[in-house]
Amino acid sequence: MNFTIRYETTSKTYKTVTISDFSTATYNGSICGDGQNNPKIAVQFGSGFSWTVNFTKEASTYSIDGISFSYNISDNTTFPDAKDKGIVTVHDAVGFRIPLNNIFRCNSLSTLEKNGVVQSYWDVHVQAFVQNGTVSTKEFLCEKDKTITTVVPIVPTTAPSPTTTPTPKEKPEVGSYSVNNSNGTCLLATMGLQLNFTHDKVVSVININPNTTDFTGSCQPQTALLRLNCSNIKYLDFVFAVKNENRFYLKEVNVSMYLVNGSVFSIANNNLSYWDAPLGSSYMCNKEQTVSVSGAFQINTFDLRVQPFNVMEGKYSTAQECSLDDDTILIPIIVGAGLSGLIIVIVIAYVIGRRKSYAGYQTL
């Protein structure tokens, strides 16, 4: 989980801070519940942050009754120049019901937004009112996890076998993604995505469906992140960076996917160099392009346009096209080839003409 908080400053502007460090978390006040008290998860972390989840029980179901998140806006380190002071608490009455003796699972990204706070959750597995001290093996899925993108089955093998070739897939649907901060839209991306990966010598192909894909991210002065997530993709991260203070490029891709056999496929590469363009412009490539993350994982992009920095008024700036789209390079090639051919013809004609001019004379 993480928490994004938007707050007003003393200069009447707004800033955004994201809280995602739980390395110092404690769980004081968490209880399993008894005859008089319901189960509760209570977490304390960072400088004055706390998060509490309450559960209630009915005849055949239990509920995630409410989620509370508190933060200390007086902390100048986390909230510099904050106008308000004191402890702020945001409470969401979730009221989500789950059958008793079931684990609630939601790998997809879910968000709660209230009073300037966005709570983001993913890979959630929770069971309250555990019976007889044994965690259930039955799962109750959230709606987003019930919509599963088809994955080419991965067949386990007991002996070495040659790599199989996947069935070619149709062109993926183009999706539009964006990231916002306190100043508005800070990252724009439009693209069709096709994932190609090899696991246990079996090649699989997945087309990302933008209609069932969630997205989030963040923008910093020197880096920007776009994270995609759906039912069988835990996360697909595109990390952009600034180089030489005047250009941007795709520096890093991280992916983690759930496979049909229950295993997880994960790859990360933070040493890439794709989609290079000047700051203040966008990068565009309409033709199919391949981002090779590793020998086992590649991303094919279609109708790509991306701008991770200096987005103005939520619109793309002038695009720098990729070399695959740039047909103008053919003009000098054609002209050069034509001139070369003309020069060759002139030279041959000259040589032939010289030979004919000496045909009727003898040397003295």
From TrEMBL:
* Coiled-coil intervals: none
Statement: the UniProt record of this protein carries the keyword Cell membrane: yes
> From which domain of life does this come?
Eukaryota
Q: Where does the sequence pass through the membrane? A: 329-352
Major place of localization? membrane
Q: Which Pfam families match?
A: Lamp2-like_luminal, Lamp2_2nd
Q: Which cysteines are joined by disulfide bonds?
A: 106-142, 285-322
Lysosome-associated membrane glycoprotein 2-like luminal domain mapped to chain residues:
172-311
Q: Which residues form the Lysosome-associated membrane glycoprotein 2-like transmembrane domain?
A: 331-362
Q: Which PROSITE patterns match?
A: LAMP_3
- Compartments it resides in: Cell membrane; Cytoplasmic vesicle membrane; Cytoplasmic vesicle, Autophagosome; Endosome membrane
Q: Would you kindly state one Gene Ontology biological process term found in this protein's UniProt entry?
A: cellular response to starvation
Entry GO CC: autophagosome membrane; late endosome membrane; lysosomal membrane; plasma membrane
The record's PANTHER family line, in alphabetical order, gives: LYSOSOME-ASSOCIATED MEMBRANE GLYCOPROTEIN, LYSOSOME-ASSOCIATED MEMBRANE GLYCOPROTEIN 2
Name of the molecule in the record: Lysosome-associated membrane glycoprotein 2
Tell me which species this is from: Odobenus rosmarus divergens
- Gene behind this chain? LAMP2
